[in-house]
Design a protein that fits this description.
28% of the residues lie in helices and 29% in strands. The protein has 256 residues and is of the alpha/beta class. Helix 1 runs parallel beside helix 7. The longest helix has 14 residues.
């Protein structure tokens, strides 16, 4: 990626075990040692925190400015592409990182496929906040959308996909290949959730501990519902399995 300045950004809150943060950093560093990986601890809604990153990277997001009253954001990063990676998501190989940045630099928005089953928005599929990649130029060209939820139309980051579709930007989605457990169930207006999350009718289902990939193989793993039960332990064990005791330095940034 000579001449390019990609980065990877993960955002977490204080309820996340430091071992989870460290192990994610180690896995990312194993497969992308030459790409800057920021881990921000931010006590704000996930979508607003993503807006914060763009503001720090020199691109104003209107909704973030409105929500924070024009809060001053320290400038310190200058990246032309970003892979947004949830704190409980990891690449499974070098090809995952290469594929995502290649797609982004080709002008696409690429990410893990997700559907907001709690929203009545026509079974819209989108590049999820767990794992999504685009360039700064693409972000500007689709109107600098906020990552914040916009119900009943959008979940976190879903506005990126709506905006890309509305501006004829190609969206590439990885489909779930397998998952380890059913999701934690909650009561909601439609009754109890089923023992999985559904994409569009007839498409693969997903749940806790989902592996996403393409026709060539596995690419990313996302734990989901990281703050529940033993899910952090599950995620940490997945990381250790991949690392086999690989322990590089980490870079945690407190941006409060």
């Amino acid at each position: 990626m000579s001449g390019r300045t990609p980065c990877i950004v993960s955002i977490f809150r204080k309820n996340i075990d430091i071992n989870t943060v460290q192990l994610q950093a180690q896995v990312v560093n194993k497969f992308a040692p030459n790409i800057k990986h920021y881990q921000f601890q931010l006590e704000m809604p996930h979508g607003v925190a993503i807006d914060y990153f763009w503001s720090q990277n020199g691109v104003a997001v209107d909704k973030f400015i409105e929500a924070t009253g024009g809060r001053d954001v320290p400038q310190g990063s200058a990246h032309d592409a970003v892979l947004i990676l949830d704190i409980d998501a990891i690449p499974l190989n070098e090809r995952a990182i290469q594929k995502f940045f290649d797609a982004a630099y080709a002008g696409k928005l690429i990410g893990n496929a997700q559907r907001s089953n709690h929203l009545d928005n026509g079974q819209h599929l989108f590049a999820a906040s767990s794992c999504a990649c685009l360039t700064l130029g693409t972000f500007v060209s689709i109107g600098r959308p906020s990552a914040y939820e916009n119900p009943p139309r959008s979940d976190v980051l879903e506005e990126y996909t709506w905006a890309a579709e509305e501006n004829d930007v190609e969206v590439e989605l990885l489909l779930p290949k397998r998952y380890e457990r059913p999701p934690v169930r909650f009561e909601w207006e439609g009754g109890d959730q089923p023992d999985y999350w559904q994409l569009k009718d007839g498409m693969p289902k997903y749940g806790v501990g989902t592996t996403f990939g393409d026709e060539e193989g596995d690419l990313f793993y996302h734990q989901f519902q990281i703050a529940f039960g033993d899910h952090q332990e599950m995620f940490q064990n997945k990381c250790r399995e991949i690392l086999n005791d690989f322990t590089p330095e980490i870079n945690i940034i407190d941006a409060e």
